[in-house]
Amino acid sequence: MDTKIKTNNTTSEKIHSSENIDEQMLERLFRQFSQEIPDDGFTDRVMKSIAAVSQEESVSQKTAFSLKAQIPLLKSLNWFTAILSVAIFLFAGGPQLVWNSVFAPIFSNVTSILPVSVFRWTFDDWLVAFFRQAHQLYSIDVLTTPLPTIYILLAVLTALAARRLALLTV
Amino acid sequence: MPSVTDIALVLQVVTIGSQRAFATLVERHQEPVRRFLRSLTNGDEALADDLAQETFIRAWQGLRSFRGSASFRTWVMRIAYHTFLDEVRKSKPTETLDSNQRIEPNATQTDNFMLRHDVQQALDSLSEIERTCITLQLIEGQSIADIATISGLPQNTVKSHLMRGKQHLTTYLRNHGYKD
Fold first, then answer.
1. What is the DSSP string of B141-154?
2. Which of B22, B35, B61 sits opposite A34 (nearest CB)?
3. Number of domains in chain B
4. How far is A13 from chain B (nearest CA, A)?
5. How many CB atoms are located within 10 Å of the residue B114 CB?
6. Are residues B65 and B154 in the same domain?
7. Domain boundary residue among B98, B113, B141?
8. A52 Cβ under 8 Å from any chain B Cβ
9. Are residue B75 and residue B156 in the same domain, yes or no?
10. Taking CB atoms and an 8 Å limit, are B120 and A33 in contact across chains?
């Protein structure tokens, strides 16, 4: 109750004291005080600053965009997608295509200088030679396995390497 | 009544990033923003214009957050007020609030200058928040509700600051020879 009485007293004091305020005088003086401010090129200066800020933001967004575009792509390269993509590449004849269109012509030119038979090998010759070497060194009997199995093994190995490379890049 | 409303201009800025539309908004609202900041910075025109520029850059960057619950002017005045508060926080009070260095009347200055000088001095004698409320009401003609939005204070608090500020101003100006 005491608090309420005190509060009421304070409010009444405020109301009483507000009578001392000369509203008309203040309004008149502040009307005279408030001056017009011409633009004087202010808008141009602001827009130039905004253009500069926008340009900076655009550059930073582009950088962020390219990184953001790359990182999830690399991170999304999980085991399944890595193996699947490499397997598709191998089964679709990708290595042969690359070999025949890029490396074979180069090596065929080289063989004219160096008469070494390996340069005339096809991709499959290289593959068979690779597994023959593996068989001799580690007794892995890959030569008796059908060629698709060899391709799958190669796909797994390549996928491992691809993922490792992707993680290193990130 | 402007031909294109502020909301329409804001929409143009937000949807197609129109700098021309934003330039129109700046042109339309630069005067109250600069006047408000000049009052808050005790008449330091250079500092006020720097803060006004910063205000409009912040408005450009944050325009997507404008919901239209208050008018664009109220929204941008609120940004101006916060820009001023940030400036006060990072600089020493004596650097921004020493008005005597800036307004020095001399013999060639007119009565209007003297009036402006006296009113500015009267404003300087108020606390920061009282000055903000008084400037927004008596110079910019903002409503109590808008002042509350700009300053982030409850309406009753704004009323108290206005009343105290006006009382202080009346006393100050009467003591300096101003009468109705």
1. ---HHHHHHHHT--
2. B35
3. 2
4. 12
5. 12
6. no
7. B98
8. no
9. no
10. yes
Q: Does A43 touch chain B (CB under 8 A)?
A: yes
* Interface contact B119-A30, CB threshold 8 A: yes
Give the gyration radius of chain B's Cα atoms. Answer: 17
- Condensed to tens digits (0 to 9), the pLDDT of residues A1-25 reads 343 333 444 444 444 444 566 777 7
Report the residue of chain A nearest B119, measured CA to CA.
Answer: A33
Single-letter amino acid code for the residue at A109:
N
Amino acid in the structure at residue A89: F
First vs last C-alpha separation in chain B: 34
| Two tokens, residue B58 | 């912040």
ipTM rounded to 2 decimals:
0.72
Chain B residues whose CB is inside 8 A of the A19 CB are none
- Tell me which of B78, B98, B118 is where a domain ends: B98
> How does DSSP assign chain A, residue by residue?
-HHHHHHHHHHHHHHHHHTT--HHHHHHHHHHH------TTHHHHHHHHHHHHHHHHHHHHHHHHHHHHHHHHHHT--HHHHHHHHHHHHHTTHHHHHIIIIIHHHHHHHHHHS--GGGG--HHHHHHHHHHHHHHHH----TTS-HHHHHHHHHHHHHHHHHHHHHHH-
pLDDT tens, A49-91? 888 888 877 766 665 555 555 555 555 566 666 677 777 777 6
Interface of B with A in 64-123 (CB under 8 A): 112, 115-116, 119-120
Owning domain of residue B121: 103-180
- Other Cβ atoms within 10 Å of B38 Cβ, number: 22
